[in-house]
Q: What sequence folds into this?
């Protein structure tokens, strides 16, 4: 998309707003591209294609957030983790009742308009819960990936199925938990299953028909560049799944996705080599799926350091010059600034205690510390298998210029080929995003969760808010200079975006496993977060 | 959980029975495990690692209320029912179907689980639960802090079901080194309210802003951390019985506690 196109699209949006916007207007791609211009809506997983998860609504601010009160609650009829970020389009909120029911609600009251029920195939198999992170929209059509690896198109007004297509074979351990990305006239999606012997890919489907347009394998086949980074036939089952939302830069028409760990997870002996393109960010031409560039965060990973965080695109001053960059807080404990046009590694440094690497070479390849790999006796690794952060979405505020990340400090013993248990974590609970509120850690000092604000130019934290337990909750920043987040202990928090001071909190009685978002209806700003099995919304008193 | 059914691998066993179980481990399990060969069980162990351990953990105890390695499920299950769950999952729960394995492989996993559960009850060799009960209620003075079936104090953990929750070896460690294996919900916490007296109790829960405990008077107390001048963990008041009881009394006590499997 050219700059000229972008300007004309913004004009189109302005015209729509002038005409009233009360009627349910179609969500054309031009509206999604210019989503920042209509902050009362939330049109994609992170609100905007740059994944900044920044709301330009400013009704709720540092001065009045203390008066925030419950607006409504919607109780999902599901015992699964509630990981979805809702969309809001002109007063209608769309979310997913896990595993794969789409629900349309009145965004002002929480009353249900319709529910679409999808019964997943018994063949569906997921590694870490039958979850879904949300739907995408284009025109009047919602798109959802399912745990039985289908892509569904659903009428946004009636809740009727328009088409469905098989993205991959669920019987071969492919599943979908991610929110799809709408790019131009296509829906782009990948699959989970990287721990269970799949060969990862990302694919684009025609939004109108569901026809496959292109497919990019995240593990190259024989004869392709990178295939020789996999020993023997290990490329066929090497994982590198794409299981979290991507980003799109209309200026270059590149889409970006993070890729998952290579498999088997904690034993690299059968897959010698760098294992491209596992644990990478890949930049693809949105029209063709051709690879433009890649950067591998963790070559030959044996520590389960999926690079499936959402790429955050920002335009910042870098060494005195404006630069289009990508900010990335990785599961491997390192934070990165990459040039998002060329893929050049600009800077990286640890943001938690880590012991598996001790520096970068000039191209940004991490220098491994000898011996910091799984062994039959076990090796103490920092950060542990769940990483410094995981899939939960971070935020970037163009107002403060700060990058907000929720993450945790932890370590653990990793034994070759075995599912590891983190140190400091009591052994009675799974740590993959529990659905209860019991404390996870035996020892509060060995591990804790935190929300931190980082200065992109230095990747140094400017403030932190520490929690007594881990967090699988994402972060939202707003034009009211607030940061919203939460943790496993079920608190939803409002922090001062500049200082980190706690300004408001609500105890929601259920673990937060999702990213917050904000929208407005009738001039009233709402902040929404899923916790436990419910979606909560908050607003100022009328 | 049915308390007296040996096929679940958790039934109270006398010391001779424990030995017999250890030696003839397959005798204490049924169905798939009864007919399983050593190779089947070995295959089952491998299949468990590949299919189940990612969520349930290597010892099968990563999910609250479930301890596969000790035969503890959320409800009593026959071999056929477990096979069905492995293959088809449990609807409306995180337990997924596992279409990638055959029924024969699922049966091998069950054989492994049953054998594993039976083999783990081995640490109270030589102990007598009847004598152990006398130690528990007499010289051990355990009821001063603990409670069993409605008798005793609530300040320490209730031990009515401790035989379902802990292996014999863990119970032994708890008696000899009480600070070694303290569960998160059993830690001792001390708080000092602003302008008030210190309160020490068993930690029941805590989060970023609050802490909940049961104090020495068996009162449920909740504190806002912002209103405390001090708060933190302190050593467990549980004494070590290493010097107080002889090895036979320890074995008896372990044997008694292993037999505590809920209210009949």
A:
């Amino acid at each position: 998309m050219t700059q000229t196109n972008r300007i004309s699209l913004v004009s189109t949006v302005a015209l729509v707003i002038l005409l009233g916007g009360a009627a349910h207007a179609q969500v054309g791609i031009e509206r999604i591209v210019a989503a920042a211009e209509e902050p009362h809506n939330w049109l994609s997983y992170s609100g905007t294609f740059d994944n900044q998860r920044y709301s330009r609504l400013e009704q709720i601010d540092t001065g009045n957030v203390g008066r925030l009160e419950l607006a409504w609650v919607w109780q999902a009829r599901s015992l699964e983790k509630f990981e979805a970020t809702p969309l809001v389009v002109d007063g209608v909120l769309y979310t997913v009742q896990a595993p794969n029911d789409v629900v349309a609600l009145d965004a002002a009251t929480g009353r249900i308009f319709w529910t679409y029920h999808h019964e997943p195939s018994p063949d569906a198999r997921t590694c870490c819960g039958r979850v879904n992170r949300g739907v995408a929209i284009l025109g009047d059509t919602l798109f959802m990936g399912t745990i039985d690896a289908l892509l569904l198109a659903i009428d946004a007004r009636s809740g009727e199925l328009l088409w469905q297509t098989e993205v991959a074979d669920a019987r071969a351990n492919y599943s979908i938990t991610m929110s799809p990305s709408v790019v131009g006239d296509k829906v782009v999606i990948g699959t989970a299953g990287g721990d269970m012997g799949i060969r990862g890919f990302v694919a684009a489907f025609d939004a109108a028909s569901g026809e496959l347009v292109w497919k990019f394998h995240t593990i190259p086949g024989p004869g392709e560049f990178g295939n020789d980074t996999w020993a023997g036939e290990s490329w066929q089952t090497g994982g590198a799944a794409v299981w979290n939302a991507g980003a799109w830069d209309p200026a270059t028409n590149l889409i970006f996705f993070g890729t998952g760990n290579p498999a088997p997870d904690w034993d690299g002996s059968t897959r010698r080599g760098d294992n491209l393109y596992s644990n990478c960010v890949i930049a693809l031409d949105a029209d063709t799926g051709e690879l433009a560039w890649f950067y591998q965060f963790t070559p030959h990973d044996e520590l389960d350091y999926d690079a499936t965080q959402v790429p955050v695109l920002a335009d910042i001053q870098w060494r005195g010059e404006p630069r289009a960059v990508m900010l990335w807080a990785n599961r491997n404990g390192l934070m990165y600034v990459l040039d998002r046009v060329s893929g050049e590694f600009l800077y990286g440094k640890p943001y938690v205690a880590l012991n598996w690497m001790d520096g970068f070479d000039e191209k940004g390849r991490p220098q491994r510390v000898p011996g910091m790999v799984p062994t039959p006796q076990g090796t103490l690794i920092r950060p542990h298998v769940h990483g410094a952060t995981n899939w939960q979405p971070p935020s970037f505020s163009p107002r403060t210029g700060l990058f907000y990340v929720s993450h945790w400090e932890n370590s653990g013993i990793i034994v070759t080929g075995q599912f590891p248990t983190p140190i400091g974590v009591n052994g009675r609970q799974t740590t993959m995003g529990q659905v209860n509120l019991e404390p996870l850690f035996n020892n509060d000092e060995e591990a804790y969760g935190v929300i931190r604000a980082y200065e992109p130019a230095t990747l140094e934290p400017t403030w932190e808010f520490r929690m007594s337990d881990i967090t699988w909750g994402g972060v939202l920043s707003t034009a009211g200079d607030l940061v919203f987040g939460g943790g496993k202990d079920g608190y939803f928090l409002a922090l001062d975006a500049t200082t980190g001071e706690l300004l408001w909190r609500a105890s929601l009685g259920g673990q937060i496993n999702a990213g917050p978002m904000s929208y407005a209806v009738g001039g009233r700003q709402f902040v929404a977060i899923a916790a436990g099995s419910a979606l909560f919304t908050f607003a100022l008193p009328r | 959980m049915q308390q007296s059914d040996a096929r679940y691998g958790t039934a109270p066993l006398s010391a001779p029975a424990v030995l017999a179980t250890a030696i003839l481990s397959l005798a204490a399990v049924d169905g798939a495990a009864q007919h399983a060969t050593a190779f089947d069980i070995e295959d089952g162990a491998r299949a468990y690692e590949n299919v189940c351990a990612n969520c349930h953990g290597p010892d099968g105890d990563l999910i609250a209320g479930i301890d596969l390695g000790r035969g503890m499920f959320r409800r009593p299950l026959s071999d056929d029912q477990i096979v069905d769950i492995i293959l088809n999952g449990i609807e409306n729960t995180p337990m997924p179907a596992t279409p990638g394995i055959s029924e024969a492989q699922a049966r091998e996993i069950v054989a492994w689980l049953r054998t594993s559960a039976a083999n783990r009850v081995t640490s109270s060799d030589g102990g007598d639960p009847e004598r152990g009960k006398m130690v528990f209620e007499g010289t051990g003075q355990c009821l001063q802090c603990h409670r069993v079936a409605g008798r005793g104090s609530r300040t320490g953990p209730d031990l009515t079901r401790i035989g379902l929750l802990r292996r014999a070896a863990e119970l032994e460690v708890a008696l000899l080194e009480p600070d070694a294996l303290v569960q998160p919900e059993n830690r001792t916490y001390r708080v000092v309210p602003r302008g008030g007296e210190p309160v020490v109790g068993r930690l029941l829960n805590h989060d970023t802003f609050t802490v909940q405990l049961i104090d020495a008077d068996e009162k449920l107390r909740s504190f806002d951390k912002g209103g405390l001048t001090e708060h933190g963990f302190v050593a467990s008041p549980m004494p070590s019985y290493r010097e107080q009881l002889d090895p036979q009394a320890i074995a008896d006590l372990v044997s008694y506690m292993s037999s505590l499997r809920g209210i009949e």
